[in-house]
Amino acid sequence: xxxxxKRTADKRVDRPRVRWRExxxxxxxxxxxxxxxxxxxxxxxxxxxxxxxxLLGGVGLAIGSAALGHASVDxxxxxxxxxxxxxxxxxxxxxxxxxxxTATAPLTERVGVPIGAVELLRSxxxxxxxxxxxxxxxxxxxxxxxTATSETVDQSQVQNQVQNQVQxxxxxxxxxxxxxxxxxxxxxxxxxxRPDEVVAGFGLGLRTGQEVTTATEGxxxxxxxxxxxxxxxxxxxxxxxxxxxxxSVDAIGVLPASGVSARQLYTEVRHALDAAHLQDMSxxxxxxxxxxxxxxxxxDGRGDAEYLATAPVQGELLxxxxxxxxxxxxxxxxxxxxxxxxxxxQRSGELALLRAVGMTPRQLRSSVGREVVRIGMWAxxxxxxxxxxxxxxxxxxxxxxxxxxxxxxxxxxxxxFTVVLVTAGLTVGAARAVVPFxxxxxxxxxxxxxxxxxxxxxxxxxxxVSAAGAATLQNSDTAAAAAGTAxxxxxxxxxxxxxxxxxxxxxxxxxxxxxLGGASGRLAAAACxxxxxxxxxxxxxxxxxxxxxxVQFSAGATMIHAGAAQAGQAMRxxxxxxxxxxxxxxxxxVPGVAAATDILPGTVILPHTSAGSPLLDxxxxxxxxxxxxxxxxxxxxxxxxxxxxxQPGTVAVGADRAxxxxxxxxxxxxxxxxxxxxxxxxxxAVYDRSLALGDFMLAQDExxxxxxxxxxxxVLVATVPGTDPSGVRLTLQRLDHGAGAxxxxxxxxxxxxxxxxxLNSTMSTVLMAAIxxxxxxxxxxxxxxxxxxxxxELALLRRLGASRGQLRRxxxxxxxxxxxxxxxxxxxxxxxxxxxxxxxxxxxxxxLPPPELGLMVAVPVLTGFAGVLAPARRVLRRRTT
Length: 881
Fold this sequence. Notes:
Blueprint: H1 2-37, H2 39-67, E1 70-71, E2 81-85, E3 88-93, E4 101-106, E5 113-114, H3 116-122, E6 127-133, E7 136-144, H4 155-160, E8 166-175, E9 186-189, E10 197-201, E11 211-214, E12 218-226, E13 232-234, H5 236-243, E14 248-249, E15 251-256, H6 262-282, E16 294-297, H7 310-345, H8 348-356, H9 361-400, E17 408-409, H10 419-439, H11 451-471, H12 476-496, H13 498-516, H14 518-530, H15 532-570, E18 575-578, H16 584-588, E19 593-610, E20 613-624, H17 629-632, E21 637-640, E22 650-654, H18 655-661, E23 668-673, E24 678-687, H19 690-693, E25 696-699, H20 700-704, E26 714-719, H21 725-734, E27 742-744, H22 757-789, H23 791-799, H24 804-841, H25 850-869, H26 873-877
Parallel strand pairs: 8-13, 10-12, 20-25, 22-24
Antiparallel strand pairs: 1-17, 2-15, 2-16, 3-4, 5-14, 6-15, 7-8, 7-11, 9-12, 10-13, 11-12, 18-26, 18-27, 19-20, 19-23, 19-26, 21-24, 22-25, 23-24
């Protein structure tokens, strides 16, 4: 009995296991057969999955490379340790009930190192030598090749020499001892010993014995030629004098003593600076730029001491790539869910039959999931391979467009390319995750959309409209974020409300289709009315294309258009002079000139809070000479007077920024300059044309003392009425003594110092290209998939007597109805966030250049017609019997 009972129990235990194995075998068999049977249907999903994988893989590689990026180490390659000022500023706030939060922003102007730190470091036993470095700009350097002697360095230098000409250019200046930090050695000649002697970098193409003349500092004789990029090397004392800050230096290169490692040197230098800071604190003194704010850099971090612009651009690049990846992921989920659901909807009868013959819902989902995974695996791998050239092409494009600053290295180690496998897996997982929702309860007829879907869609639509409304009450940055959120939310709502949108469209288009389209129109109207869910799925990708492209293209184009209009309204000058170091004071001495204004663009950092969180926003600022401003520029002052900008500690604020900060004339604004100094400035004027002139306007002298190389972008010149403009132009051109000044009439537009402007423009173009490619694939794939599913219907109509021409016209009418509905709904979806953004920020209606508008409409229309007509050609070519 015991033996018999044991055998019975074993059979009971093994029976479910056998059934489970048989079920898995059955699902594998069904999946493999279904893949062969529905090859044309799954082809659309294959293309979409490959595109999603390629985009996600390319963005993933870009994010990884940008996160590993660092500034190049060139000038300090031979110094294992470099000491610099702290090139960042912090802002800490304590939200109610939360711990303190700190925001950090990089500084783009040089923060000096106290000169006393040089002697402190020289006293350390682990230090071999200490070299103080200053980097400054020598403006208007004139190189007279006719003063050259017969001495030559080598043949290549002679070939680089431009004979019997005068070259004018700004050149970097440094002390000669700092050349050893690279190291740059002498190719010819000797080191400078007198204040009027220099060593020229090989990149300048000079020879020993030549004479160089600067715009402000006189003439220097070249006594040597050194390796390295274009630069002029002065004696240590002369370089410190030209740098203009005798109490500090830009950086200190520390070389170790014999037998001292870089790690040990770093530790000793850091401890010495910290100990000096503690002594200062205990003595009750704290010098500007004391040792507490000094940074000790090693390895790749030494590049931060050379290229100050890399840190902010790297952060901006990472933020943009994160935005791109988020948008691509959202759009990919919408596209994949729509395609998978539509592919399974066409097989609803087949799936219902499988359920009727005994397949469990779990087995059904497993079988369909295997189909999707098999398709997705190969598509994702293909996309992963395509992601690599896409990523490399993106970096090449950014370099070619000048969107990345000099010195920013973006490494691509071999292990980084494994990211594409991760994104490929995510793509397959996203497609597989849609299957349980797409399978649902298969029936023999198209399922009607449920109440839960309608309610969810209406809630999302309400949230999108609310976000657009909230954008009208915010400042520019918050308004842009709210408008983007509104666009994404409303597109998702349209995807859920697609069947009801289709029904509404048929109420409008159904009558004209039947009356004007003849037999083909009646067939098209009947086909659309028979399955509004299918029609809604066809409309959704077109809505996606129009909504996203309209918001992205029109938002930027409206800002540029409005800014150009404001710039034209603000300009009062007849001429603009740029280059060669000409100033407004020089221009005022020209006969016939009534007013002249220096234009010095820059940036400031505004510390503020948003929802309790600290923020440090870098904003454009314009430095001007207030004396001649009223005759050359009209910022549209609404309160106060710009003539008061001549007083110390004053600022003019744009109207939108003044509203967001709740300040007016007489109020104070706290700004941080890019050298780290914070200052409270009194508001003396509020002006309206901030898109063209920036959010803040300062006196040029006020802004220049916070800049390392304060060079005016241009000088605006207004003439006395009745003066001959040609004579004024000729005199202005002669002011620089042939150094290459450019006089333009009408004046050249003012270029604000907007950080990452070229990067933002290029990345926006790349983003729109990626979204457009993905959504075009979605439009074509969805419509092609729907048409493939309708091939039996078209074949039946052919057997019943419909001609090829009638069916082609029917499909064209359907395609026209789908694209027209998608265009109208997409434009309506884009209108809400666009109006909220442009009315708030630009105070104008949305604007889109006609070529871009035509392209935005033509691409979905052509893609929609191709997606409907192309898959039906095979059926329409068949002969009926």
